[in-house]
Design goal:
Blueprint (H helix, E strand, L loop, with lengths): L5 E2 L4 E6 L5 E7 L9 H11 L16 E5 L1 E2 L2 E2 L4 E6 L21 H8 L15 H15 L5 E9 L2 E2 L9 H5 L8 H16 L6 E8 L13 H10 L4 E6 L10 H4 L3 E3 L5 E3 L7 E2 L2 E2 L4 E7 L9 E4 L5 E4 L10 H27 L1
Antiparallel strand pairs: 1-2, 2-3, 3-7, 4-7, 5-6, 8-9, 8-10, 10-16, 11-16, 12-13, 14-15, 17-18
Helix pairs in contact: 1-3, 1-8, 3-8, 6-8
């Protein structure tokens, strides 16, 4: 039986490795042949996710350089499995000595023990957000597959705590997102978010928020009926990420407060030919299939579970104890999660592009 380490159908990725092991990697099966692989572009995406990049994130120092192990010759993909590896260089397993005998609240420590009867104590093993380095590497390849089609994927921090941003999803640029370490393109909101994260860090606490993402240039017709709907696969992709507790597409929960007469996306002729919609409450997906409009989604991240304050918990014997975590942790995961959300969106769209190509040629 599959163990939940693979994702996708036509563009299928399998990640491997643990937070404090030798490294983490990914195997992509289904990447088409003769795709010019831009390795520096992969490393740029990894740099956006890497720890230690600013004062707002964990101080773990990882270079996150990618090694291409297979599937490429003379800069072109072969159509065979593409394997990539990122080695761990700055793991500090001693910081997790107390965790060996006590479960961290709101972590996967207890549930992994319940599932397997054993767990990787240091760093949480595969439950760690460190695992997402493999997803970002794969997502960078997916972006390269989608780019010649005119598909552009961009995410940004839309809320931190109770601080919202005002961002135009149709015009926002990567340069605007990357302008601030918090990765919010609204300068006023970015300043307030930065101050909030700095305050919770000093207090040994953490804060959550929302990432918003858009895929522009996706043509109509991507997605499969019933169980493999495009929005269902996007939801699974985002909810598979560590710390994610909510997903919305289009109007999301806010749409429940509208009437049908207000919410429907009426079809109108597109300038230059074709069909468009007057609004985009559907978020670019109807009936589980893309309709040619920008795909808009929001992903909710909980506050980082590890905080530098004593926490009530129990040990493996069920005896109450107090745990005072050590180590290096993000006071807010959102700035580093932006490229991870983009990567998962790219993986889903690349998969459905190849599935649609097989359907219509």
């Amino acid at each position: 039986m599959a163990a939940g380490n693979s994702f996708g159908a036509a563009f299928r990725v399998t990640t491997f490795g643990e937070s404090h092991g030798g490294g983490l990697g990914v195997v992509i099966d289904g990447c088409p042949p003769r795709l010019p692989l831009d390795v520096p572009a992969i490393e740029r995406e990894l740099a956006r996710r890497r720890p230690g990049q600013s004062h707002l994130v964990t101080a773990r120092d990882e270079a996150d350089q990618v090694e291409i192990l297979s599937g490429v010759s003379d800069g072109l993909t072969l159509g065979t499995p593409l394997a990539m590896l990122v080695r761990n260089q700055d793991a500090r397993s001693k910081d997790y000595a107390e965790v060996a005998s006590a479960y961290r609240p709101s972590h996967a420590d207890y549930t992994y023990d319940a599932k397997f009867g054993i767990r990787a104590v240091a760093g949480g093993g595969r439950a760690s957000a460190r695992e997402t380095v493999a997803r970002v590497a794969a997502g960078a390849v997916a972006k390269q597959l989608l780019a010649p089609l005119g598909v552009e994927i961009l995410a940004w921090v839309d809320e931190v705590g109770e601080i919202p941003a005002t961002v135009d999803a149709l015009t926002v640029t990567l340069a605007e997102v990357e302008r601030e370490p918090v990765r919010c393109p609204d300068p006023t909101a970015a300043a307030a978010m930065t101050a909030c994260i700095e305050a919770v860090r000093k207090a040994g606490d953490s804060v959550g928020g929302v990432i918003r993402a858009v895929a522009r240039g996706v043509p109509a017709g991507w997605g499969e009926p019933v169980f493999d709907k495009l929005d269902a696969d996007l939801a699974k992709a985002m909810l598979s990420l560590p710390a994610v507790k909510g997903f919305e597409i289009g109007s999301g929960f806010a749409g429940t407060r509208l009437r049908g007469s207000q919410h429907n996306d009426a079809f109108v002729p597109r300038a230059g030919g074709g069909i468009s919609t007057r609004t985009n409450f559907s978020g670019g997906v109807q009936g589980g299939i893309s309709n040619g409009e920008p795909i808009l989604l929001r992903v909710a991240f909980k506050p980082t579970a590890t905080i530098l304050q004593p926490q009530d918990t129990v040990n493996a014997a069920g005896v109450a104890t107090v745990l005072a975590p050590r180590g290096r942790h993000d006071p807010c995961v959102l700035p580093r999660a932006v490229p991870i959300v983009e990567a998962m969106m790219a993986l889903v769209l690349a998969d459905h592009f190849l599935r649609q190509r097989a359907t219509r040629g």
